[in-house]
Amino acid sequence: xxxxxxxxxxxxxxxxxxxxxxxxxxxxxxxxxxxxxxxxxxxxxxxxxxxxxxxxxxxxxxxxxxxxxxxxxxxxxxxxxxxxxxxxxxxxxxxxxxxxxxxx
Length: 104
Ligand code: FES
Fold this sequence. Notes:
By secondary structure, the chain is mainly beta. The protein has a single domain (2-103), classed as Rieske Iron-sulfur Protein (3-layer Sandwich). The protein is 0% helix and 55% strand. It has a 5-stranded antiparallel sheet, with no helix packed on it. A hairpin with a 5-residue loop joins β4 and β5. The structure holds FE2/S2 (inorganic) cluster (FES). FE2/S2 (inorganic) cluster binds next to loops.
């Protein structure tokens, strides 16, 4: 879900029951990152000789893909998987009953 809160647009995501909230601004060039695709983490299976044996998909650690240039971010950490210093701006989020509070 993406919502305007005050002067900030925020994306809120639920993963395994926990909420995560991020500013809808990509650290690369400012794209609307929270409106990108959500995909499972992709892992390549390797055999003992380091040969590829296909892919598996980890739904427990989804990735948010910025629609402008394809940078990926872990929804759980807000970090780019290859360069952790490239990260989304995260906000505190709480849930009380049916209400969700985001501190911006
Ligand atoms: S602005 Fe998001 S990947 Fe470039």
